[in-house]
Every structure is written in structure tokens, then in C-alpha cells.
Amino acid sequence: MRNRFKNSITHFYEINTGNVQFTIGEVGSSYNKLNFTVYSPNSSTVDVTDSHGVKTTYTVTSNNKIDINADAHLLNSIITVEAIQMSRFTINTINDYSKVSKIEIFEQGALTSLEDMANGSNLLTEFVSVDLPNVTNMNSALRDTAITSFPDIDVSGVTDVGSMFYGCSELTAINANFSNVTVNSSGWTYGANKLKCITGITTYNTTQTTGIAMFDSNVLVTPTEYEKDQLINNPDGYSYTKPAYLDNCSFGIFEINLIKANSTNNIDIRVYGLDDNISCTVIDTTGNSTTYTYTGTFLNITGIDVSGASDTINITMPNINRIILLNNNVKEAHIVNEGTLKDLSGFNNNYGYNFDTFTSVTLHYVDTVVNMFRNNKGLSAIPRLEIPFCRNYQSFLEGSGINSFPTDWQFNVATNFSKMFYGCSSLTTLPQLDFLKGTNFNSTFHNCSSLTDIAGITFSTDTSDTVNLSNIWYGCSSLDNLPNIDVSRATTMYRSFYNCSSLTYIHGLGTSGNVTDFYNTFSGCTNLVCLDAMDGSSSQTSNDPANVFNNCTSLIAPNSTEQVDIIDNNINWTNPNSCP
What we know:
This protein is mostly beta strands and 580 residues long. It is 4% helix and 30% strand. The chain has three domains: 1-111, Jelly Rolls; 112-250, no CATH class; 391-580. The strands form ten sheets. It has a six-stranded mixed β-sheet, with no helix packed on it. A hairpin with a 5-residue loop joins β18 (277-283) and β19. It is flat, with a radius of gyration of 31 Å.
């Protein structure tokens, strides 16, 4: 026997006896009873101590379960259930009966399932428990409850979490690691639209994620958008664990310093919150601090004073989603704390004539940088940014003034590079670029007219990917050197090298066997002399050799006959002499 003291009540029970407490949050208007079911073998006993402290022993007589009505007419009173062989219990939500505000499991005992434990208990705000390594099923355990968090406990045995937190509209954090979900995760957090942080979950295939959406929270920061997608759609399953740097799901407050370009034109910004309760504090150049609040999706903050002696405007905001600069009086921007920032799209879109410097801490949660520096003519270079889960680089630097790009940029999970460097007419060289998961390269380097050299470029070779190389080097008229490329996953090379008039040799097109569309691929490559190989195995009948190699006036290999063989006869051609 041992003594456990909790909530000012002393309980005595045997070690390994399942022990659960229910706190009464509402007294029934007609029936001052709490109705619940205990699952235990026939002939086993269940001890229940009601809200008066009266203990009653019940014997299970049929169906390996027993329905119990315990006295619960005292608000905030506690009902205790103790049973050596209790494998499961459920609270039954019956009209006019008392309702539970808190469930606390003191001893796991024989518990193996919490399926439907508190399903529909809409007054339940708190769930507390010891480790539950032997529990395997939590399907709908806390569905449609009002809990705000789930505790950091051992749930390593749980394989079924289907609809576990479905409809939990007050839930903000799941602090346990569900590391063994092999059966069902459909609808796991559907409707939990305040959920920001999950400690961990592992899925093993996509069969258990089908049905109701596994996630349904626009404010969910971690797992990131990429990790959510993998948990739902990766056919081999995916294991997510909250990053070690993120302590107790505490994200901190976003902070950015803006440096003014002049002291005459005030600065305007727009901020987006994770939810509809925006609170943003701005310290202007005079030292004046103003906190702006708004109930809505975004807030425009205009007329930020730049007349003071300081050059810096300091902006802080909890629960931020996105920030945009709305005029042309920012010279520099420095992110010093990421907070919950998820989106940098359009950050300084079209307002970059004075903007020349951007720095940032690691941005762990940012998913997209679409149009981030589009048309920033004052920006000649950027530092290497750490954005490990960014998937979308579309038009990231389109039309900007950059003349170089940092080495070792990690495009870990990025798939969309459409127009990333489109129209960067001052860009002259590029380092090795590893686009290992990239699929969309439509116009990536389109009209980079000063680009002469790319150190290396790696495309996806994943057999499940299809890669679009349409217009990728269109108009790169100064490009005279292209490294050996593997285009084995490409399906279209529509105008890929259109008007690359300085290009003389191309290596690697022997891997083009999946390409169906070669329309104008080399059109206007007037100095192109030689390909080392080209695979036309999948070339569609609409392709015309004269069109594919239009105005390639210097091309020796393949010759005109070989060009017909490649395009019309679907030949995998190799240059017998190779290129220099």
C-alpha cells in the first residue's frame, strides 16, 4: 500500500491499481450524478469515491464493463475511480447530468485504451496524467473538449490517434511525442484552430492519414508546412520531433530593426497575425513607443516617425505570421528574433530603390519567400540566409539588382524556383546550386543577360518527381559555360536555352529521356557548336527538329540528320567525338 496526496485529499490504493479522478465543473440541473463507464473483466471490482467522500464497491457482472452513476452534486468536488483491472473508462455526456472540468490519471494500472475517454465533454479544460506507455488507443479521447494543452507524458505505445483532438478549439500545445502512430491519425487535430505547437508525432504510411484532415490550424508553427505535408502525404511515413531549441513551445517575440533611408518620408508597414488579435509595438526614431492593436487578419501601421536623431525603428510582435514594407524609405532590415514568423512573401516587393541590406537570424518556420525582394534595384547582394523549411522561392529575387549569390545556400526542401532570378540583369556568376527537391524551374534565370558562369547545378533525380525546365535559361545571352547537368526527371524543356547566344557546349542531355516537349529548346543559340548527347526517347510528335534547333547556325553535333533522328525517330543519341 502507498499514500498519494493530491488536491488536499488523501487516497490509499495498491500499486498498479488504475486510479482516476474527475473534477466536477458543472452540477446537473435535474440529475446530480456523473455517469461514466468502466471497462473491466466480469467479476472484477471497481471502487468509486463520490463527491461526499463515500466509497462504494461495484462488481462487473456482464459485457466486461459497468455503467456507474456517482453522486456529483458539489461543484469542484472530486470523484475517484480505482480498479485493478480497469482497461478503459469513458465519461458519458448525458443531458442534465453533472459534467467534468478536469481528468487526472494517477496510476496507469491495466489501462490500454482511452478511446472516447471524454468525447464531447465540452467543459473539460484540463487533462493531467502519469506516463501511459501501455495505452495503444486514444481515438477521440479528447474530441470536442475545451482543453488548452496536452501534458508531456510517455505515450510511446499509442498507435491510434484518429480524431483525438478533433474540435478542440482552445488547444494551443501538444507536449507529448506520439512516436508510434501506425493505425490511424485521420482528423487528429481537425478543428483545433488555435494549435501552435506539437512536440512530436511519427506516421508510418499514408493509409492512416486518409479521411478527415489530420491538421486544421492556420496558426500551427511547428511542425512546419513542409513537415505537415510529409506527415500526411509521404507514403513511407515521416517522423517529426519539436526542435531542441524550442523550449516548452515558447516561441518568443518577433523583433526587427528597420534603418531609415532619409528623415523626411515616414515609413509604413503591414503586419499579419497568426490569429485575429494583433498587437504590435513600434519604437520610432524619436524613441516614442506605440502599441497598435487590432482584431482582424492584418494591420496597416502608417506614418512611423523618422524625424528623430536615431536611424532605427524597432518593431516587436508576438504571434506574427508575416510583415511587409509598404513604402520606399527603408534602407536596411535586420530580423533579430524570429518569433512565429512563417511568411516573408512580398516583404519588400517593388519598394527597393533605397533598400540595400538585409540580415536575419535563422528562420525555422518560414515556408515561402515569394516576391520577397522583387524589383529591389538597390539590393546588390544578400547574405546566406538560413531558411531550412522554405518550400517556395518563386520570384524571390526577380528584377533585383543583385550581382552575386552566396555559396552553400541550403535549399533543403524547396520545390518551386520559378522566376527566382528572373530579370536579374546585373547577376554575373552563380555558385554551386543544389536544387535536390526542385520541380518547378520555369523561367528561373530568364533574361539574366549578364550571367556568364554557373559553377554547378543539381536537379532532382528522384523517380517520383517531374521537373519543369521551361524557359529556365531563356535570354541568358552572356552564358558561355554550363556545367554537366542531369535532367533525367525533366519532362519539358520548352525554350530552355532560347537565345543563349554565347553558349557553345552543353553537357548532360543524354539524361533527357523523359522529356516530351522540346519546343524551341535551342532556338537562337547561334554559337552552339556541340552537344555531347541528347535522348529524344520521349519526344512528342508535335516537336519539329527545325524548330527545336532553330537558328543554331554553328551547330556541328548533332548534325541535321541526327537532329531528325533524335526528335522524330526518338533516338538516344551520343556524340561519338564528345564535346571539349
